[in-house]
């Protein structure tokens, strides 16, 4: 393993060190950790049973939702991969490591990217899920992202050649854009974003471009909260309530509901305390009317997630989404110690470090039992990727966009000159990542089959989803 580059005495992080010197330092790391070494994937002899990892990561989740988690994961190797971040984190610990740490997404797969509105109402393309964010080796994010394209490509039944090309484009785009960021000042990198409209316009598939532009127009036309209010609520006297749509949206019953209802005001107050003063001035005009559990995603199923409905005195709604914040799956596998004892704060701080612009209502809170949460707006002009309609050329373009977005995020908390020096200008790194991604996709297939066997044996419970 290469020497750590995070020592404050290291000239890499001395503002007086030139970009050229830092680039050379990155290039020198190639002698310690050749770029070709990243092609390697050899499971360790004492590799933990992936089913046991899944069982461990279900501890502390809502027991009635754990079967739903496994049901979603068993749909395909791709949905399994989405819920198996802990398995890959354990595997990545045993892969080549340049010793360069920065803020990681932690669950960097292709469905955790997309479009959303900034507080200034500009639509940008970026990473949009940070539940597992934590400082760690930069290679881990790019390996998980590239592998996800191979796995998704197989799910879509693209050729093996296409799938390998998708992974290659992720790494190549990351390399090319990291080189561009290495030429900018730290402030210029901080200002940088990826304009979603411009990104869509660059595409040469006219049919998909028209589809995406219609989605973009729809996302920017309506006020999300008002649309959701009409769809998701009903009036109970003078009070607006969230409609139950079990098993995906529901009010908890019995002791859990009584406890949460009793604590709701305190939990909301603690959340408000984490916001900046101007956000407090805005949200103090709204009162908490109702909240409900909402089942989301694949990896988050079983954690306590939901939506809160806030109303102003004149009847304007705001929907907030709260998500339980648990220990990052990366933390047991990295040397860095967590900076934040509050897991919700860990997620919020990591998100603000990595995103070009974060939700204006992003904050954190906890209940009396020290269950941590982070909070953001529910669906603020979100534009998610629709893999089902993508052709191979579209997937390749999407791989390039994700590689670009990841490079921009890493350039904010890492040193792009060092990273670019290591990556170089040739194809060696992209070739290695493409090979790794194929090997890891095969490992994912094997792990998926082990999960199916465990389900047949009754080790993992499943449920029917309505």
Separation of termini? Answer: 49 Å
The gyration radius over C-alpha positions equals 22 Å
Q: What share of the residues does DSSP label as strand, in percent?
A: 5-15%
Number of H/I helices: 17
Order of helices and strands: HHHHHEEEEHHHHHHEEEHHEEEHEEHHH
Number of strands: 12
Low-confidence stretches: 1-12
Strand-pairing-aware structural class = alpha+beta
Largest sheet: 6 strands, antiparallel
> Order of strands in the sheet with the most strands?
7-8-9-10-12-11
Give the overall pLDDT as a whole number: 91
The number of domains: 2
Overall 3D form: globular
The helix content, as a percent range, equals 40-55%
Describe this structure in words.
Helices cover 48% and strands 14% of the residues. The chain has 466 residues and is an alpha+beta fold. The strands form four sheets. The protein has a six-stranded antiparallel sheet, sandwiched between helices. Strand 9 and strand 10 form a beta hairpin. Helix 1 (19-32) crosses helix 16, helix 6 packs antiparallel against helix 15 and helix 7 (160-182) packs parallel to helix 15 (392-413).
């Amino acid at each position: 393993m290469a020497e750590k580059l995070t020592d404050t005495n290291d000239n890499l992080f001395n503002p007086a060190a030139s970009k050229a010197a830092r680039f050379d330092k990155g290039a020198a790391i190639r002698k310690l950790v050749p770029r070709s070494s990243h092609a390697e994937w050899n499971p360790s002899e004492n590799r933990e049973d992936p089913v046991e990892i899944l069982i461990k990561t279900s501890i502390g989740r809502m027991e009635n939702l754990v079967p739903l988690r496994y049901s979603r994961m068993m749909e395909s190797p791709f949905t399994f991969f989405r819920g198996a971040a802990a398995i890959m984190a354990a595997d990545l610990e045993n892969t080549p490591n340049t010793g360069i740490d920065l803020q990681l997404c932690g669950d960097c797969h292709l469905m955790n990217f997309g479009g959303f509105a900034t507080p200034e109402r500009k639509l940008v393309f970026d990473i949009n899920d940070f539940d597992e964010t934590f400082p760690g080796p930069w290679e881990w994010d790019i390996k998980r992202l590239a592998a996800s394209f191979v796995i998704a490509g197989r799910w879509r039944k693209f050729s093996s050649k296409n799938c390998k090309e998708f992974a290659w484009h992720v790494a190549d785009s990351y390399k090319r854009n990291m080189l561009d960021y290495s030429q900018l000042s730290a402030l210029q990198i901080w200002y940088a974003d990826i304009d979603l409209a411009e990104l869509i316009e660059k595409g040469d598939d006219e049919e998909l471009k028209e589809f995406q532009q219609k989605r973009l127009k729809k996302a920017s036309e309506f006020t999300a909260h008002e649309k959701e209010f009409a769809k998701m609520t009903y009036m109970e006297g003078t009070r607006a309530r969230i409609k139950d749509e079990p098993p995906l949206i529901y009010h908890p019953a019995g002791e859990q509901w009584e406890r949460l209802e009793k604590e709701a005001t305190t939990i909301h107050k603690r959340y408000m305390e984490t916001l900046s003063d101007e956000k407090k001035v805005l949200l103090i005009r709204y009162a908490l009317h109702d909240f409900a559990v909402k089942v989301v995603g694949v990896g988050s199923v079983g954690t306590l997630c939901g939506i809160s409905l806030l109303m102003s005195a004149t009847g304007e709604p705001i929907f907030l989404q709260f998500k339980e914040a648990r220990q990052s799956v990366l933390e047991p596998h990295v040397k860095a110690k967590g900076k934040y004892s509050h897991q919700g704060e860990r997620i919020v701080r990591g998100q603000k470090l990595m995103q070009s612009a974060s939700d204006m209502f992003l904050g954190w809170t906890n209940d009396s039992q020290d269950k941590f949460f982070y909070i953001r707006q529910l669906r603020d002009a979100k534009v998610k990727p629709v893999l089902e309609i993508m052709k191979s050329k579209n997937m390749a373009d999407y791989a390039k966009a994700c590689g670009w977005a990841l490079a921009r995020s890493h350039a904010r908390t890492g040193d792009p000159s060092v990273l670019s020096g290591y990556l170089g200008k040739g194809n060696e790194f992209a070739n290695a990542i493409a090979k790794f991604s194929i090997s890891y996709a095969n490992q994912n297939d094997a792990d998926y089959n082990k999960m199916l066997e465990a389900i047949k044996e009754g080790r993992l419970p499943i449920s029917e989803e309505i």
